[in-house]
């Protein structure tokens, strides 16, 4: 049987191109499906899954799907607590939700890790 599915790396590249073109909703839909497939697929590496989830969080952020952006960013940080950019993204996401007090911690962590430079 021939597998006619588009390879994950091709989907990621397509989603990244859409993200770069400002098509955040379309990129998010592709990335959400890809993230689900990578989670279900034991052949995907952790790094691949984190790259997909971080870009998904960014696409959600830029398309004002802030709860989803927060959820994905927290998942990235749970898997990679040294990801300075994810702290910055989480802080900015919380700020956009007017949760300024909560945003302080992640923003300070991002600054301490140099992500604000």
Overall description:
- By secondary structure, the protein is mainly alpha-helical.
- It has helices at residues 8-20, 24-40, 46-62, 66-79, 84-96, 100-112.
- Helix 1 (8-20) packs antiparallel against helix 2 (24-40), helix 4 packs antiparallel against helix 5 and helix 5 (84-96) runs antiparallel to helix 6.
Question: Could you provide a short overview of the structure?
Answer:
This protein has 117 residues and is mainly alpha-helical. Helix content is 74%, strand content 0%.
Distance between the first and last residues' Cα:
51 Å
Which structural class best describes the helix and strand composition? mainly alpha
Helical amount among residues, as a percent range? over 70%
Computed Rg: 15 Å
Supply the number of helical segments.
6
**Proportion in β-strands:** under 5%
Question: pLDDT under 50 segments (min length 5)?
Answer: 42-46
H/E element sequence: HHHHHH
Say how many strands there are: 0
Outline type: globular
SSE blueprint and pairings:
Elements: H1 8-20, H2 24-40, H3 46-62, H4 66-79, H5 84-96, H6 100-112
Features of the shown structure:
117 residues, mainly alpha, 74% helix
